[in-house]
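chain below, 155 aa
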Amino acid sequence: MTLTDYIAIYGAVLSTVLAVMKYLEQRPKIKVSLDKKSEYEKDSSTLKSTLVVICRNDGLKVAEINTVGFILPNKKRVPIRYPDEGDALPHKLNPESICAFHIRTRPIADTLIQEGYSEIPKIRAYALDANERIYKSKVIEIDLKDWKEFFEASK
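prediction:
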């Protein structure tokens, strides 16, 4: 191999690496988090409990969030197509912006109980974009016993 061959190989590798880096830099970078929230309803003494899925776009391009939901400990996905409060789906998420989807805890707790969980299962939230890429939150623990007591007390 001559010096020209080495320079040609170096140039090809360098341009490929730069093209991949540019692609990765410009694609949407969605961060998903899951929070528990309890608050009193407006003009009422009724306490309501929700899970809040928060999506943040740290990328340089607009992303479209089509579905949010939860991943159960058995890896089963529970999609939420119509959040109770917050932003609607599908949602266009501009760069450097945040959107939030509020889901009442009762249906999620009922689903966990139907799936056979009785103590403190660990779940995570997910968001699915228009390109079918999945973004996941960190795992949180859900205390079904506390939720059951909360639901009984709020009747």
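The radius of gyration is 22 Å. The longest strand covers residues 30-40.
thats it, cya
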